[in-house]
Amino acid sequence: MATERLNILPVPTFASLGVNWAERSVEMYETETIALNAGDEQTVIRYADADTYPFRNLYISLGAGAKMKLVQVFDRAARCVSRLNVSLDESAELELVQVYIGGGDTVSEIVARLDGAGSRFKAVIGCALDGDDSLDIDLIAEHRGRKSLSEINAASVLSGSSNKIFKGTIDFKNGSSGAKGSEHENALLLGNRVRNRTVPVILCDEENVEGNHGATIGRLDEKHIFYMRSRGMSEDKIYELMARSKLMQAIGRVGDREVKARIYNSLGWGDTDE
Amino acid sequence: MKEKTKVGDIDRSLYDFRYEEDERDFFDSGITPGIIGEISDEKNDPDWMREFRLRSLEIYNRTPMVKWGASIEGLDIDNIVTYIRPKTRMNTDWDNVPENIKETFERLGIPKAERESLAGVGAQYDSELVYHNVRKEVAQSGVVYTDLESAMHDPRYAGIIRSHFMKLVPPTDHKFAALHGAVWSGGSFVYVPKNVHLDIPLQSYFRLNAKGAGQFEHTLIILEENSYLHFIEGCSAPKYYEAGLHAGCVELFVGEGASLRYSTIENWSKNMYNLNTKRALVQKNGRIEWVSGSFGSHVSYLYPMSILNGEGASAEFTGITFAGEGQDLDTGAKIVHNAPNTSSYMNTKSISKSGGRSTFRSAVVVSENAAGAKSSVNCESLMLDNISRSDTVPVIDVKTDNCDVGHEAKIGRISDEAVFYLTSRGLSEEDARAMIVRGFADNVSKELPLEYAVEMNNLIGLEMHGSVG
Question: What residue ranges do the domains of chain B occupy?
Answer without folding.
Answer: 25-415
